[in-house]
Amino acid sequence: MHTLYIKTYGCQMNEYDSTRMVELLAASHGLRVVDDPAAADLLLLNTCSIREKAEDKVYTQLGFWRPLKERNPDLIIGVGGCVASQEGMRLRRRAPFVDLVFGPQTLHRLPDMLDAALASRQPQVDVDFPFLEKFDHLPERPGQNGPSAFVTIMEGCDKFCTFCVVPHTRGREYSRPMPDIIREVRSLVGQGVREITLLGQNVNAYRGATGLIGEAGLAELLERLARIPGLLRLRYTTSHPNDLDDALIAAHGSIPTLAPHLHLPVQSGSDRILKRMHRKHQVASYLEKIDKLRAARPDIRFSSDFIVGFPGETDADFAATMDLIAAVRFDQSYSFKYSPRPGTPALKLKDAVPEAVKEERLAILQGRINALAQEYAQAMLGTRQEVLVTGPSRRDARELTGKTGCNRSVNFAGPAVLSGQMVLVEITETMPNSLRARWSGDLLPADAVEPRGFAHARA
Ligand code: 5AD
Ligand code: SF4
Fold it and tell me: How remote is the CA of residue 348 from the centroid of ligand 1, in Å?
């Protein structure tokens, strides 16, 4: 067994898990990633079940891989992630040629499962929730490519929104101890990483052992990470409004390396729908947090997730969501049509919204969000922005590409040695999905704190 092909669906947590699977199997079995499934000895599918027809997508993909297995009976096929967790043994029944089924919490057992499958030629299914175990069994992270990295700091979710499979597939909340996270971040920064995004399904519910006495929350973890020399930018995603406490809000004001952007999903602007979603927050409490964050960090921008067409959503409820968008002026958000998910309480709710209405609402909402994103981009013209240079631009290798603090892609002409550095550029042009800029020769040293030029106006 020499080669591995991996396909990943879904969220950043899944991307992170896939990276760790590759690292794990490289360490345990010396496997090397190939980009052609036909050239692989092991095929892995890391699945996501958050929205629409996720299971169908998995079975379709497995259907494409089946002939490879028929041609090469030694090929091992594994399915991991949330669909695996949700389907368990059912997956084996529908796709008997699958050898390994593992959940998001058991990926660290992959090398042992692989050995067992190779030795016994019997399928291996392990979709437990063995908290604590996963992170203790992952190897130290080897060479990084690029100045940006993700670090999972907590797993699972205890919120049980009625539409969401996450608490069912990823399990209850579990936070990694702070010293482990700090060690991982230090090691990444030592390898040239300059920006860290802390990941968790409900990341601001983080409460981890401090290493001294007791536990502390995300604000304290951010403060400790911000002290690591060479770490220039911190982000965290994704958050629930109720877990955004005053300490975390204050951290946005006091930690300059914390990016001036927060993804704070609201889902709906109608209290009636929020209640049916079991979100446990109201529009007013959400707006209050937004105001406090803006007071702490005036240049902060917000993005959100929205669900349209949740059962029972009327025209008035949808109008309330549009009002909330106007009030907050979100930038670059994600929006989805509600899709019923297996095992979730919302399945029992009456008054399903017709598909055509969902589509119409989604188009209206996305049109407004895109218009706001363009307004923000226009307002950035002529401002100076901190950009972390990720490497040469994909379109034109003579150009560099990077990300602003508010998470926008920027392209500009500059020497290749700037890759991995934080620079100051002036925004010169807006494109549909990116910005163009001019670099005037300024590098940002690790401890520089620039006044950010973009003032936010509440509509
Ligand atoms: N239908 C539509 N969107 C969903 N999301 C989660 N579950 C569903 C569902 N059943 C969206 C939410 C969440 C994001 C990650 O995916 O907006 O914040
Ligand atoms: Fe799902 Fe997020 Fe709600 Fe948790 S807080 S149940 S992950 S939508």
Answer: 17
